[in-house]
């Protein structure tokens, strides 16, 4: 018998002909891990959650929870016997119960799991004090999501499934709630799968992340590796963290590898993928990879500037079809306008040379 907390083996999840994900395999080894499934809208993320919860049949493969099969191609354990709680993106509250009553439905599920927070505690944490007596039709979609989350936590599940839990919540409140919910999940060792289309949310919340694209699980790894070492051009483009430029591999025998670009010159670092010298590849350049230097001889024209609060992202033109982004702290001594020349520190060194 496997000691893994959750195993999904060669599973095919189907909601419709277009909404289908094939041959998914992933493992949650330890109780209390948080997994984020990241992908575009419509890829089938919610279908995976609904199938794990027992609300949809598994087309093929197998899902095991705590060493027991809960879904396979010919078996589907009833949802009420799984001790899995799912917090839906859409309003799933009971319309004839007010907010407090909806939350306390979760408390009626007794399974012996430790959870020391009361309904009042969660109402305070999730900022629901002012709507306790209101009914679902009287509250916003973001408030309904928070009510559903409180109800799910009070049910003390073996596995918690959250479908875009922060999607309809104001930005000013979102980061606070993400931190508080993550602390609660870790404090009480609640194993959780979160579906999101927001990579920043996935990388903060998840111990591991799965990238779902074009009906398959493309990568399943810790957030650091997915960000710095995407395993395909497809994953790197989905994360949208930079641009690709054509370079030539010059040196791969030393500890520090070397690439060359006709304008940027020598680019050094550690190649994530192995390529022989002489190979022509596409290098991922992210805004933080290049450093600004007013004294540099390498200067490029500014074609765009985006203010991000703590930083600016400058877009620089290398040729008619190649533009690159550069991160600059917002407290830099001066700002650069469009059409101005912008210096890049050389030689360029990038820790992770992600090439395809």
Short description:
By secondary structure, the protein is of the alpha+beta class. It has two domains: 6-235, Rossmann fold (3-Layer(aba) Sandwich), CATH 3.40.50; 242-353, Nucleic acid-binding proteins (OB fold (Dihydrolipoamide Acetyltransferase, E2P), Beta Barrel), CATH 2.40.50. The chain has helices spanning 45-52, 99-107, 119-125, 141-154, 171-187, 199-205, 223-228, 233-239; strands at residues 6-14, 20-28, 34-38, 60-65, 68-72, 75-76, 84-87, 159-163, 191-196, 208-213, 216-221, 243-251, 257-261, 265-271, 280-285, 299-307, 311-319, 322-329, 341-343, 348-353.
How would you explain this protein's 3D organization?
34% of the residues are buried. 21% of the residues lie in helices and 35% in strands. The radius of gyration is 24 Å and the shape is globular. The strands form four sheets. Strands 7-8-9-3-10-11 form a six-stranded mixed beta sheet, with helices on both faces. A five-stranded antiparallel beta sheet has the order 2-1-4-5-6, with helices on one face. The protein has two domains: 6-235, 3-Layer(aba) Sandwich (Rossmann fold); 242-353, Beta Barrel (OB fold (Dihydrolipoamide Acetyltransferase, E2P)), CATH 2.40.50. The chain has 356 residues and is of the alpha+beta class. The protein has helices at residues 45-52, 99-107, 119-125, 141-154, 171-187, 199-205, 223-228, 233-239; strands at residues 6-14, 20-28, 34-38, 60-65, 68-72, 75-76, 84-87, 159-163, 191-196, 208-213, 216-221, 243-251, 257-261, 265-271, 280-285, 299-307, 311-319, 322-329, 341-343, 348-353. The longest helix has 17 residues, at 171-187. Helix 2 (99-107) runs parallel beside helix 4. A hairpin with a 2-residue loop joins strand 5 and strand 6.
């Amino acid at each position: 018998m496997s000691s893994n907390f959750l195993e999904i083996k060669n599973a095919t999840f189907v909601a419709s002909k277009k909404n289908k994900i094939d041959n998914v395999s992933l493992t949650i080894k330890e109780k209390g891990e948080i997994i984020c499934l990241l992908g575009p809208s419509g890829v089938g993320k919610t279908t995976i959650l609904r199938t794990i919860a027992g609300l949809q049949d598994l087309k093929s493969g197998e899902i095991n929870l705590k060493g027991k099969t809960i879904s396979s191609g010919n078996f589907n354990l009833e949802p009420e016997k799984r001790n899995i709680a799912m917090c839906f993106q859409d309003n799933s509250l009971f319309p004839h119960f007010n907010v407090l009553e909806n939350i306390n439905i979760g408390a009626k599920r007794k399974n012996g799991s430790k959870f020391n927070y009361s309904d009042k505690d969660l109402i305070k944490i999730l900022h629901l004090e002012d709507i306790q007596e209101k009914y679902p039709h009287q509250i916003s979609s973001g408030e309904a999501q928070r009510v559903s989350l409180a109800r799910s936590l009070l049910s003390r599940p073996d596995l918690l499934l959250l479908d875009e839990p922060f999607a309809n919540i104001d930005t000013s409140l979102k980061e606070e709630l993400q931190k508080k919910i993550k602390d609660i999940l870790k404090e009480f060792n609640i194993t959780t799968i979160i579906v999101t289309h927001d990579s920043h949310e996935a990388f903060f919340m998840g111990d591991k992340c799965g990238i779902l694209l074009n009906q398959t699980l493309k990568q399943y790894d810790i957030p650091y590796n997915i960000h710095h070492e995407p395993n395909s051009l497809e994953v790197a483009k989905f994360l949208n963290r930079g641009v690709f430029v054509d370079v030539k591999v010059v040196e791969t025998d030393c500890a520090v590898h070397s690439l060359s670009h006709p304008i940027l010159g020598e680019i050094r670092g550690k190649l994530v993928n192995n390529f022989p010298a002489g190979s022509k590849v596409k290098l991922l350049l992210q805004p933080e990879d290049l450093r600004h230097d007013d004294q540099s001889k390498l200067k490029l024209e500014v074609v765009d500037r985006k203010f991000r609060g703590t930083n600016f992202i400058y877009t620089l033109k290398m040729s008619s079809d190649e533009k690159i982004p550069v991160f600059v702290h917002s407290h830099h001594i001066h700002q650069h306008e469009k059409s101005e020349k912008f210096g890049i520190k050389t030689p360029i060194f990038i820790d992770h040379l992600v090439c395809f």
